[in-house]
Design goal:
The chain is an alpha+beta fold and about 170 residues long. The protein is built from 4 helices and 7 strands, in the order βααββββββαα.
């Protein structure tokens, strides 16, 4: 494990929706299944969900080409409507944490910290921080080497969220 301070990747977005709705879109499965994927044409299915402090969820994202990706999420802090903190892991359908098949040295423990700020009654600023927790030196090197691409996955998810919220 490395002891160096890690600079998180950051994505900042504004959404044309009240803060409570944007927060709810991150914690209510009825919303999550409609946007928690990187590109249009994907499907998202939650097999289990207990989205609260010390809770967890397991979901599957199926890409348009049929590739399936399983994700286990462990929630550390769910403070409506201002903050959400979770660890997300690659997993199998049983919810067991597995290595990323496409990037074997990708950090196993990825921490996301989200801050929801009301810009006004109808707009919300979301600050998303993303970093590995207790990475090995090899995992940290992979994280840093891919830093320029960090906004592609979660950034695309934010695009899906914006489209979903606009359609409500």
């Amino acid at each position: 494990m490395t002891n160096s301070k890690i600079e998180p990747s950051q994505i900042v977005r504004e959404f044309n929706a009240p803060r409570q709705l944007v927060f709810d879109a991150w914690v209510n499965v009825e919303h999550l299944v409609n946007w928690m994927f990187p590109v249009q044409g994907c499907t998202c299915e939650y097999l289990s969900f207990d989205i609260k402090d010390d809770g967890s969820s397991l979901h599957k994202v199926t890409m348009p080409n049929g590739f399936e990706m399983w994700l286990l999420t462990k929630y550390e802090e769910v403070k409506a409507p201002e903050k959400l903190v979770f660890l997300q892991y690659m997993s199998n359908e049983a919810g067991e944490i597995v290595a990323n098949e496409r990037m074997p040295d990708w950090p196993k423990h990825m921490l996301a910290t989200l801050h929801f700020e009301a810009v006004d009654d109808t707009r919300t600023k979301l600050t998303f921080l993303w970093e590995p927790r207790n990475p090995t030196s090899k995992e940290l090197a992979v994280f840093e080497a891919s830093r320029a691409d960090h906004g592609k996955g979660w950034g695309a998810g934010m695009d899906q969220l914006a489209r979903y919220i606009e359609a409500l």
